Amino acid sequence: MNLNKVKDSVLGIIIISIIVLVAINKRKKNKKEIQADMQFTSGKIMKSSMSHRGGVKIEYIYYYNNIEYQDEETMGIYSGLKDVFPNKYFPVVFSGSQPQINQMLILPEDFDRYNLKYPDSLNWIKAVVRRSQLNH
Predict the structure, then answer these.
(1) Secondary structure (H, E, C), the chain
(2) Residue 125: inside a domain, yes or no?
(3) CATH of the domain at 94
């Protein structure tokens, strides 16, 4: 491998590392914002698709003070299960002072992140996760 290829590889690794660190930092900051003034509502998944990064990308809406908010997230589950989610409702936690900072709670680890008990009504999601693990 020549020196230019090594430099390009190192530069690529550095750029990817910076992007990952920025994303992790943003997620931690959002979690703190939500926990500082945590509010709950229900959100509806409007669309789900395969994520370009792998997994299932969901697009959802929720309302707070008669204002509609839209967001999207990617779940690390088998993308073949994407058709399970449209038109389903799930809890959303958000910052009361900044409602655009939110997270839809679907997977058990989403609830764990906020020290919330996983509701029995969502146990069917655990079966979806098990199917996802079988397909990976």
Answers:
(1) CCHHHHHHHHHHHHHHHHHHHHHHHHHHHHHHHHHHCEEEEEEEEEEEEECCCCCEEEEEEEEECCEEEEEEEEECCCHHHHHHCCCCEEEEEEECCCCCCEEECCCHHHHHHCCCCCCHHHHHHHHHHHHHHHHC
(2) yes
(3) 2.40.50
pLDDT of residue 106: 95
State the residue range of the domain holding 78: 37-135
Is this prediction's pTM over 0.70?
yes
The count of structural domains within the chain is: 1
- Give the pLDDT confidence of 74-98 residue by residue, as tens digits: 988 888 888 999 999 999 999 999 9
